[in-house]
Write a structure and sequence with these properties.
about 375 residues; about 35% helix; TIM Barrel; two-stranded antiparallel ribbon; alpha/beta; 10 helices; globular; about 15% strand
Length: about 375
């Protein structure tokens, strides 16, 4: 029987354009999520955006509010670890070279780390890894950073990034999904040679499987094309969210109107809009502002398809955004509670750190063109 480790990875971050507040978008929804996870007996991985925090930390002496947000961020991340969850590395590179004006964060227009100079990439990764180790070594004995999630899925070109990740001891990379194409962010995962199973990537083209094991394992996000009932439930949920205004009105956190240069900063503009066309709407497994029926239907569809692979272990990544949870807490709690009764021994909730250990112990579970010498 194929086993499906369920890897819920939460992108712990503010909005990509720099708007938002740690208290409302990170601390409060994370505390609620942790309570739900405790009730369900589930452990997950939080991918924390250290690039955001490093920038805000550099500004804390100039703004008491920023200093309070930095303290709350660190408190929240330590709380996550203290409650038994995995903490790993997430980076939104648009925080590099950011500035503050009038209480707003003004970020770079490049949301893909592969578009930055090699030295900038190396410095950001090494600084972020060192920071996480320093923050959490007092909470978790022997804490290691073993996994990386690209901000906005951007990690092409990949050579410098993957070499740096390998040098820092990072073993797992998440964020690639067959069919994903975001031209404005120069993301193109079309034509992945391995779309479902863990594989060693070619550092020059992460869509290709490496000739030999190389220390890095890509865990693809499973592609999912929702059927009509799932699409309808998703559309209804999106409309309902807008009607009841569950998204925080960010302008109330600031003095004056939000500058247009901040509001317009998004190479992902329009990506979340449902487009009804002959070609199916392609996405991946998500936890956030989606209803219970959609959550369960999507997982049933993906597991039903991947059972045919007849492999001993097929990890399934569920991308989570706690900042989107408001208005959907009951759906998420029900999903966590019902998943094991629905699928039984086929599924197991697992942290990414635990998966990294399993793959180290069982290297044949990771695909490469040739076995290690």
């Amino acid at each position: 029987m194929t086993r499906f480790p369920i890897l819920i990875e939460d992108d712990f971050e503010l909005y990509g354009n720099g708007l938002g507040d740690v208290a409302s978008l990170q601390y409060l929804p994370t505390m609620a999520f942790l309570n739900m996870l405790d009730d369900a007996g589930v452990r997950v991985t939080f991918m924390v955006d250290v690039a955001q925090h490093l920038f805000l930390t550099s500004q804390r002496k100039h703004d008491r509010h920023v200093a309070q947000q930095c303290d709350l961020w660190e408190h929240t991340v330590r709380s996550i670890a203290e409650r038994g969850h995995d903490v790993q590395l997430h980076l939104h590179p648009q925080w590099l070279g950011a500035s503050r004006r009038g209480g707003f964060n003004l970020l770079d227009k490049r949301w893909n780390i592969g578009l930055y100079a090699p030295e900038q990439q190396r410095q950001l990764v090494t600084h972020a890894v060192a920071y996480l180790r320093s923050l959490l070594k007092v909470v978790i004995e022997g804490y290691r950073v073993v996994a990386y999630k690209a901000g906005s899925w951007g990690m092409q070109p990949s050579r410098v990034l993957f070499e740096t990740l390998a040098d820092e001891g990072i073993k797992i990379v998440i964020g690639a999904r067959e069919g994903m194409h975001i031209p404005a962010n120069q993301v193109d995962f079309r034509g992945m040679e391995e779309a479902s199973l863990p594989y060693h990537p070619d550092f020059d083209d992460l869509r290709k499987v490496s000739e030999r094991p190389n220390g890095i394992t890509v865990i693809p996000m499973a592609a999912y094309a929702p059927d009509w009932p799932a699409l309808v439930s998703l559309a209804v949920a999106k409309v309902r969210s807008r009607l009841v205004r569950t998204r925080v009105e960010e302008r109330f956190y600031h003095r004056g109107e939000i500058p247009q240069e901040v509001l317009s900063l998004s190479p992902l503009e329009g990506r979340q809009q449902l487009k009804l066309a002959y070609r199916p709407y392609l996405t991946h497994l998500k936890l956030g502002d989606v209803p219970y029926t959609y959550l369960m239907r999507s997982l049933r569809a993906v597991i039903g398809r991947l059972r045919r692979l007849d492999r001993p272990l097929v990890p399934l990544v569920i991308e989570s955004h706690t900042k989107q949870f408001k208005g959907h807490y009951s759906d998420i709690a029900r999903f966590l509670r019902d998943l094991k009764p629905e699928f039984g021994d086929e599924v197991e909730f697992m942290t990414i750190s635990r998966l990294a250990t399993i793959l180290d112990q069982n290297p044949t579970l990771v695909r490469a063109r040739a076995a290690a010498a």
